[in-house]
Amino acid sequence: MIRSGITTPGLGLQNTKFDLARDRKQELASGTFTEQLRQDLLRRGVVLSDNVRVERRFGCWIIKDEDDGRRYSVLEDRNGRLMFHGEYEISQGFKKWTELGASKLGLLELYSVEPVFTSDDDAIVKEALEFAQGPRKWVKAGFHTGLTAYETWKRALDNRRADGFGTAYNASVWQECRMLASQFLQEASERIGGSTALELREAARWYDSVAQELNILTERFPFHQRNPEHIRDEVALDQASRALSRAQIAENRAMEKLQRIVHMI
């Protein structure tokens, strides 16, 4: 996602996850709820029934009372302190890890692999391409994606108000995404075959062209070797703007192919 100043929050925003059609296996995390953990919660005013489930979600443990639906999460801050979080008035703030750590938490992390329904290649590809054409649901106000984002990006470069770090960051991310899009479509053509494969390969070539144009930006504004002077280089800024124009044209052709492919699958 791109916004006017070409800053970096785009990928860090919430609600950016898109679950593609499920594969054959899924990794799940669950935990055991011990009496020691129950007593620790009780000291904080949290009374739970005997019907408790513990599971891992979004990087933290969720303790759910199945009888009344109450949920409590165990959070860890940057300093390694743990906090039980439910209603704020009973959380009592963070607790040092030395007082409540792995040895005292009484929580055993378990992993299992369970079979789920299998999606065929056609369904996975179609769902992915439909998402690529309409990601508005995942885009925060003030941000742009796809073809309109190119206009926002070029305008910031031409007006010399693009953030240097954000330009290097977004150039790296966008180039990699388009490169992977080309590889995805190429593999899809090999898996699906038939007349659809021809369209997929052509779309892959267009995305490869986009990636090559964006590679000009990654060379002019390298992320890992970034320098404050890069964004002040007038020649580099003009070259980047022209590369974005060519990338936008190629991506437009690629998107036209994607629309056609969705109707074919």
Explain what you see:
The chain has helices at 35-42, 88-91, 102-105, 121-133, 146-158, 164-192, 194-220, 234-264, and strands spanning 25-33, 52-57, 60-65, 71-76, 82-85, 107-115. It is α+β, with helices and mostly antiparallel strands and 265 residues long. It has two domains: 9-22 and 119-264, no CATH class; 25-115, no CATH class. A six-stranded antiparallel β-sheet has the order 5-4-3-2-1-6. Strand 4 and strand 5 form a beta hairpin. Helix 5 (146-158) packs antiparallel against helix 8 (234-264). The longest helix is centred in the C-terminal third of the chain and has 31 residues, at 234-264.
Q: How many distinct domains?
A: 2
Distance between the termini: 28 Å
Give the strand tally: 6
Shape: flat
Query: DSSP helix count?
Result: 8
Indicate the structural class.
Answer: alpha+beta
Major β-sheet, in short?
6 strands, antiparallel
Estimate the mean pLDDT confidence. Answer: 77
